[in-house]
Amino acid sequence: xxxxxxxxxxxxxxxxxxxxxxxxxxxxxxxxxxxxxxxxxxxxxxxxxxxxxxxxxxxxxxxxxxxxxxxxxxxxxxxxxxxxxxxxxxxxxxxxxxxxxxxxxxxxxxxxxxxxxxxxxxxxxxxxxxxxxxxxxxxxxxxxxxxxxx
Length: 150
What we know:
Elements: H1 5-29, H2 36-39, E1 41-48, E2 57-59, H3 60-71, E3 76-77, E4 80-89, E5 92-106, E6 112-128, E7 131-146
């Protein structure tokens, strides 16, 4: 069986891009916001959360400060990603993937009040010396339900 080097390289690129997308979610869910700049985004990245209520658009630094503040009350964050649609053109790529994100905030009685949101991440990525990184992200919220959606 002959190995097609181009197909193998394309598959490796796709897996590396998926890894960056999952890494973003893991860093958010574990509140390791300080690693977003080095592990996920390019230095000049623009991140747009304006499709979410109260969302902002800006640099990774600006958005990191906002995320730290907005997500502070939540003790449970659990992104789930799927439907990866990735198009690679040399050192550039476009990706759309869907997310479902349950979040929990502790209640006075010891329980958990839940909030769900879901939507799509629309990304432009570039290959860098440190691997694939997101240069532009739009967080397109398609639904919200639960404690903060009321």
